[in-house]
# Entry
Amino acid sequence: MVENSAALRRRIEELKREKNAVILAHYYTSPEVQAVADFLGDSLALSVEAQGVDASTILFAGVHFMAETAKVLCPDKRVLIPCPEAGCSLAESCDAAAFAAFKAQHPGHTVVSYVNTTVGVKALTDICCTSSNALRVVESIPREQPILFGPDRNLGSYIKKLTGRDDMVIWNGACHVHEEFSLEKLLELKRQHPEAKVVAHPECRAYIVEAADFTGSTAAILDYCGRSDADTFIVVTESGILTEMRKRYPSKHFIPAPPDDPSCGCNNCNYMKMVTLENIVACLENGAPEIVLDEETRRAAERSIRNMIAIR
Ligand code: 13P
Ligand code: SF4
# Structure
């Protein structure tokens, strides 16, 4: 098995050179996939990195909306996705046609959408955001201007509370991983490790965010664990981030918070784990599956992503 994975890694390195390809991977992918990445990041960093890539091909080791975002920003590059079935429950909770109808019910609102959306929803959006910059994006909009925020109800409510923007209308979507954490089990872990700091992603429910010492995006959580004096952290987000945490801070301890029902394995994003060394090899060898977008939709989506990058 170890030998097999070493052979797959060698084959991937060969194919990257042969096909002039780079691999961008999200922190939630499996440790072996992270090990073959040229660039590893959270969703904001990956969108920005995609624009500066020299290679003619980007293989996106992540979920479908992330590869779409790379294609929107790099239309002249070939963007490959090893597992196109790797979706996202949050992106799927916001269908473009239904979102267009929601937008029509709220004329005059500035539309802010989280990047965890399809290209069709981004095309209906004024400014995209990620969990790293959602606060800055909302604060960049004049206070008197009403806002429609989608699709994550937890991130939306968190930003609404931080900014006091009571007029913010929020789409009712959520991520199945971040909504499943158990408050009871988290409080029990806190009792067992009173010295630990709790770090949480803003896609978690409000009662989890209230119990956390720090709430932030994947990159912000990683930074916080580095600068904090604490040695132990209870991590309330997708468990793939533990790979990078343990790599960066080997002397610190990281305890993954459990979901309500441990048998669901919900602190693992099953979509992210669909990317494997095997399907990366097949994808590079075949030059497919490739992301192909309708040009008019791509241009409209690009505007909303560029508006976000300008704020960053
Ligand atoms: P980040 O924006 O922190 O990378 O999160 C992306 C994501 O899918 C969270 O579930
Ligand atoms: Fe989507 Fe949730 Fe997976 Fe992130 S963790 S990619 S929001 S399903």
Summary: The longest strand covers residues 21-26. Residues 63, 88-90, 116, 175, 177, 238, 269, 271-272 surround iron/sulfur cluster (ligand 2) (CB under 6 Å). The mean pLDDT is 95.
